[in-house]
Predict the structure.
Amino acid sequence: MKIIVGLGNPGTEYDNTRHNVGFTALDILAGESAKFRENKKFKALTYEDNGCLFVKPLTFMNNSGFSVRAVLDFYGLLPKSLGLFRKKEIDLSDILTVIHDDLDIEFGKFKTTLSSRSAGHRGVESIINSLKTQNFRRFRIGIKSAEQEFIPADKFVLAHFKANEKEALRELILNIKREL
């Protein structure tokens, strides 16, 4: 089974915002007919199709690790504890993919990384801390634009995409689908 996690914040006020690009990506990747359902034990919206579990954590961005850990524990995808210590730096790159926004990448571009640090992204940091590893695959979707210079970062990431950006974002996510 492959786990594909899109990072974002729950609630309609965050729909179509730059910070919720992970949720947007899952909607496009899963397809229009996908019905995400709330899974209370994971504290997430989930949808399963073709051996992939799509996960939208409902814990808010900074606590995404809770949901990801709950999913991996439930499916037995983490090694068992060895006494008081858990095996460190396990490799989840074939199992776990996380999709999120990145302020340092130009809008319309993305980067794929394996085993990289959070680079200050608190949702990714939460996942790394919860899993005790950074060895998983990430798609970092660029949200950087010229407007960013004039708006504080915390406000910019919560800004909505413009109409002309929505189609470009859709095309970008379809390109990511080819790499999954």
Q: What stands out?
A: The longest strand covers residues 96-106. The chain has a mean pLDDT of 92.
